[in-house]
Specification:
There is one protein chain. By secondary structure, the protein is of the alpha/beta class. The protein has one domain: Alpha/Beta hydrolase fold, catalytic domain (Rossmann fold). 33% of the residues lie in helices and 20% in strands. It contains 8 helices and 9 strands. It has a 9-stranded mixed β-sheet with strand order 1-2-3-5-4-6-7-8-9, with helices on both faces. Helix 6 links the parallel strand 8 and strand 9. Helix 2 crosses helix 4. The chain starts with 9 loop residues before the first strand and ends with a helix. 44% of the residues are buried.
Length: 291
């Protein structure tokens, strides 16, 4: 929907190389891969990040300059390989298409576990015992729902030690304490969800309200980092997700990082601000921690 795009390239500022692939080859799902230039030709195996962009399931793209620049910076800082998934969007492709495309991407990553997959960067340079997922807004919603699916279906040869959900796009039929009841804001969220998923039962659909999902205790990752922003209308839902995870009986570790004075996806629009720099450093350390 009218989003500007940029081509893959060798980024001079970060020395990160990128390229576009279809996953699997010849399919309708695609992605942009990123790798530090210095890693090409090196025997070192790097952690992998599978990234899902935001945009309410309706706008934005993995090819946009916003996400291209962000992932160049993140890959350089963390010394990782990143796979930014270009899932199909509503309204032309309503949910659950984005979830299905995202699962296809994860299965494609797992297909490289024996070192003989279609993508040489993953065969030669990826540590598939350290695959992380992250996303912002609707992308964070996808991360959660992929985590639920990982708890139900095993992907052989690949391990997901942790996920990062940035300003997750969650909601519910009943407002939470301190959550806005401004009808203009709440109706926008409800309308976006309905456009993205016309056949949904509403905002208590477990895909949108994880606390309503009886499968939550089976989330298939060990660590979760949730990033929230003080002025974001979705802030309370991030905190509520942490509470719901703890109360579900899930056995992993969950942490919330809040950015004071900031609004939704501030780090994409102002990546040089202090809070964005702090968040970047926390993401980098999260992906390089030993469990």
């Amino acid at each position: 929907m009218g989003t500007a795009t940029v081509s893959p390239s060798l980024d001079e500022k970060t020395s990160v190389q990128s390229k576009d692939v279809t996953i699997p080859p010849g399919s309708i799902v695609s992605a942009r891969l990123y790798i530090p230039k210095a890693a090409v030709g090196s025997p070192q195996k790097l952690p992998v990040l599978v990234y899902f962009h935001g945009g309410g399931f309706i706008i934005e793209t993995a090819w946009s300059p916003t996400y291209h620049n962000y992932l160049n910076a993140l890959v350089a800082e963390a010394n990782i390989i990143a796979i930014s998934v270009e899932y199909r969007r509503a309204p032309e492709h309503p949910l659950p298409t984005a979830y299905d495309d995202s699962w296809t991407a994860l299965k494609w990553v797992a297909s490289h576990s024996a070192g003989n997959g279609h993508e040489e960067w993953l065969n030669s340079h990826a540590n598939l015992k350290k695959v992380f997922m992250s996303g912002d807004s609707a992308g964070a919603n996808i991360v959660h729902n992929m985590g639920i699916r990982l708890g139900q279906e095993n992907l052989d040869g690949i391990e997901f030690p942790g996920v990062v959900m940035v300003h997750p796009f969650f909601w519910g039929e009943e407002p939470l304490p301190l959550e806005t009841t401004d009808p203009e804001k709440t109706s926008l969220i409800r309308d976006l969800w309905r456009v993205a998923y016309p056949t949904t039962a509403g905002c208590d659909d477990p895909l949108m309200n994880p606390a309503a999902d009886p499968r939550l205790s089976g989330l298939g990752v060990n660590r979760v980092l949730i990033c929230v922003a003080e002025k974001d209308v979705l802030r309370q839902r991030g905190w509520y997700y942490e509470e719901a995870l703890r109360e579900s009986g899930w056995s992993g570790a969950v942490e919330v990082m809040e950015a004071p004075g900031e609004d939704h996806v501030f780090h994409l629009f102002n990546p040089g601000c202090d809070n964005a720099v702090k968040m970047m450093k926390r993401l980098v350390s999260f992906m390089n921690e030993d469990e």
